[in-house]
Amino acid sequence: MNPFATAPTPLRCVLIANRGEIAVRVMRTCRRLGVTTVAVFSEADRDALHVREADRSAFIGAGPATANYLDARTVIEAAIASGADAIHPGYGFLSENAGFAEACETAGIRFIGPSARAIEIMGSKIEAKRIAAELGIPTVPGFDGSNASVEDFAREAARIGYPVLIKASAGGGGRGMRRVDRPEAFASAHADAAQEAAAAFGDATLLLEKLIGSPRHIEVQLFGDTHGNLVHLYDRDCSVQRNNQKVLEEAPAPNLSPATRRKLHDHALRLGNAIGYHSAGTVEFILGTGSDEPYFLEMNTRLQVEHPVTEEVCGVDLVEWQLRVAAGLPLPLRQDEIRLKGHAIEARLAAEQPAEGFLPSIGTVLALTPPSHARFDSGIAAGSQIGTLYDSMLGKVISHGASRAAAREGLTTGLEELAVLGVRCNQRFLADCIAAPAFAEGMATTGFLEQTFPGGWRPDRLLLLEARAWAALAWSRTAQDSPWLRQDGFRVTGHGRPATLRLHVEDAFGAADLEFRIGRDGILAQCGEDRVRISSDPDIASLPAKAGAPALCRDGGAIAISHRGLGLTVLVARKARSHAASSAAAQGTGSLTAPLPGLVTGVLASVGQKLSAGDVVVTMEAMKLVHSLTAPFDGVVTRIHRAQGEVVPAKALILEMEEE
Ligand code: ADP
Ligand code: ADP
Ligand code: MG
């Protein structure tokens, strides 16, 4: 059944030297084709999805990636021990390490990728640009003085004209780059870039380029075999970037003249042919605003993160092609047989908080609902631990449609359907990017995010209110001190007179007092001037079954919710006597207890101190959120049990007070 079992180089068993979404992605194709898979894993990844998806798995060491996923010898030994015929490197890690590719072949293990020589040549941006220029492919004006002094560099910068970009020749992933706007800033930027390059890539070689203002990033997918065939699979636009890292990617690139598109494909093929390229590779270009002359940037000698958009529009499986080529078989299609069908867009799902300067988030995925209308390539499942050892990219949502508008719509739906509870992710931010006019029109440049969200991104106010309202209602149905469970006969059935419910919520976006009106016209939630209708039916018990009800679950004493792509962890409390009160303070007992396990960051009162209801008495940090515990009534502090700096378990008694 395995089509490669009898190929010139048989592939029966492949070790995937990677983790996360790309490892899972490669395994999917292997499984479909009957190729046995071997996962490798670090200590932190013992229970990771890619390990569970593999037929076999090998532990390759604890600690940071340098001690396992980046350790060439250990990975190759694992391949030999597990009987693998080949290694698929994925992207990142060892994928662009020529020494690793060579060591694989020396050990008799096929490296699924291009030749070590191609990796070596293209791994140097300086060398790659030199070859491109020799072939008559335009490159960004700059200076490639490998061994030049900082003075030489500064002189060249003045000649090229500011602003300039200093780059690491061995760079990748947007690292080792420094924009310099003035000559006075050059020397220190040069030193910083050299240091970052040495630390990240073990090579401090720098190059200089003219900074092209807000260009578009356009790239061409190449594929070659070992029989001398080389084809392109059209182009992708990856202009929406943050810190020179891609955020949204699509195929084909929109709004390109046929002449420019032809130029891009021709340049890429010329370069690939010149170095006898085989396997998957991507040639990257930038295109200045209003220009139809693409400049060559670099070549990535591996499968790209954004390869799925090309797969969708070309109807091919690029991992299968990689396996075929590694098995010594020719490409399955000729250039004239590769046709474009529709449009595809991909969004990178990351464990990060766009509203807080894109701070990475960590935690445990409590529940995961994949999108039902879009492709979802991910490395996570319920129970996955998101830590700080690896990249914050958790997966990708990919939508394919007959037109660009259809692909955009499908991606928005996919991002809104996808719910990751327990770890804060960037879906809503991604959906808002897709909705922005510049992207909608296919006119985004690398300046897109700054232009679209000049003051940073915040979720839409009404959407935030909706999410909080759903969380608060869910809490009120299940919480110990839920008003619905009170013994005083408080009931809302829809038949009686309208009822009002006041709840206080706190989450990463701040605190708010919500007022619910529940009556014949349904459930309305109000916060200040903002008002949303949660349901047209007043029966709260039926809410979870409603179409459009968000995914939610308990997270300690809080509610984790994902509403149309907006993920939150919300603490809810009954509002005591119309004053704000946290869940701990809301017991009405005068005992302030920790709502979640966490750190006491401040005790703002002393014994004997008089407080008014709603005064903030204790601040805590739990699950990376700041919580404030407030006085539930006017009274006096009688005892303080915990001090600032203490780590306390959930429900720990922190402070007691007495009514005056
Ligand atoms: P692509 O061009 O495929 O979008 P990126 O530049 O975004 O690639 O990088 C792909 C992945 O590889 C990212 O997860 C990135 O963090 C990682 N990566 C890129 N360069 C390196 C490197 N030199 N070492 C380790 N990981 C890298
Ligand atoms: P990496 O190896 O980190 O991917 P690239 O050379 O591909 O480095 O550049 C990454 C991104 O940085 C590009 O997609 C583009 O947005 C930006 N960039 C690179 N070179 C220039 C330049 N000369 N002018 C403006 N932007 C650039
Ligand atoms: Mg690049």
Which shape, going by the Cα principal axes? globular
- Uncertain ranges: 485-495, 577-588
Q: Major beta sheet, specifics?
A: 7 strands, antiparallel
Kindly report the oligomeric state of this protein: single chain
How would the blueprint of this fold be written?
Elements: E1 13-16, H1 20-33, E2 36-41, H2 49-53, E3 56-59, H3 72-81, E4 86-88, H4 98-106, E5 110-111, H5 116-123, H6 125-134, E6 142-143, H7 150-160, E7 164-168, E8 178-180, H8 186-201, E9 206-210, E10 216-224, E11 230-237, E12 241-242, E13 245-246, E14 248-251, H9 258-274, E15 279-287, E16 295-300, H10 307-314, H11 318-326, E17 343-350, E18 352-353, E19 359-360, E20 363-364, E21 367-369, E22 375-378, E23 385-386, E24 393-401, H12 404-417, E25 419-421, H13 427-435, H14 437-440, H15 448-452, H16 461-478, E26 499-507, E27 510-519, E28 522-527, E29 530-535, E30 551-555, E31 558-563, E32 566-574, E33 591-593, E34 598-603, E35 610-611, E36 616-622, E37 625-630, E38 635-640, E39 647-648, E40 653-659
Parallel strand pairs: 1-2, 1-4, 2-3, 4-5
Antiparallel strand pairs: 6-9, 7-8, 7-9, 10-11, 10-15, 12-13, 14-17, 15-16, 17-24, 18-19, 20-23, 21-25, 22-24, 26-27, 26-32, 27-28, 28-29, 30-31, 31-32, 33-40, 34-36, 34-39, 35-38, 36-37, 38-40
Bound molecules: adenosine-5'-diphosphate (2 copies) and magnesium ion.
